[in-house]
Amino acid sequence: MEILDPPPPYDDKRSGAEGDRICEMEEGDLRIAYWEEKNVRQAFIRKVYSIITLQLLLTVAIVAIFTFVTPVNTYVINHIPIYYISYAVFLICYLVLVFCQKIQRRYPWNIILMTIFTLSLGYMTGTIASMHDTKAVILAMIITTVITITVTAFSFQTKVDLTTWTGFFCILSIVLFVTSITAIIVLTYKYIYWVDMLYSAICAIIFTLFLAYDTQLLLGNKRFSLSPEDYIYGAIQIYVDVIYIFLSILRLGSRR
């Protein structure tokens, strides 16, 4: 009785040396795709932080002028309606940049809107800073810098994935909104020191958490992340977080 050779394996074309070469090619393609994605993400992060750096430098310059130049300081304090106009401009630009992707990703309109957005928020920040003591402003800047660096380093190193806590951050947004409305109503009729301090502390904590969340969205190594095309969105979100942390600490550090 003749013994027949066993049938070849089902995936015969991948057996032997040829199969090894195909596997190596596939692994190589995956490796190249991984490094390409990593390079794109790193370039995206560099672009976002370059924009944020420019925004913060411009804001610091405005705050310095409004705080240390006496004629400008006096003019700003005596023309508060300009503050409310800048707030309206800031809010409109923010909503357009966040919710309208066509404009958010369309050059040069995205850059123009972001510049107007930065100038308006910078004016608001400078106006509020001009109403506080110079030492309090400097101290708030130092504390904000330390918090920002610490939270950024934590977000880069931690294994905790904050991007999956979407529901928690939605609740925080609701808490912030309700607290803001309540504080505005109470403080408009009568200034109560502990209400102002409590509101400022809540804002500082919430925006610090948002800073960690938004930073992890940039990294791309968590469950959810931003597209490399959303560099404007990423920049303005982190910029707003940092500015509101500064304003909250400034209110905590000095009494009007």
From TrEMBL:
Q: Where in the cell is it found?
A: Membrane
Q: Which GO terms describe its biological process?
A: negative regulation of apoptotic signaling pathway
- What organism does the UniProt record list as the source? Thamnophis sirtalis
**The protein's name in its UniProt record:** Protein lifeguard 3-like
Q: Which residues form the signal peptide?
A: none
Spell out the family assignment given in the record's similarity comment: Belongs to the BI1 family.
Name the PANTHER family for this protein. Answer: BAX INHIBITOR-RELATED (PTHR23291), PROTEIN LIFEGUARD 3 (PTHR23291:SF35)
Keywords of the record, alphabetical order, are: Membrane, Transmembrane, Transmembrane helix
One Pfam family, short name: Bax1-I
GO-annotated cellular components: endoplasmic reticulum; Golgi apparatus; membrane
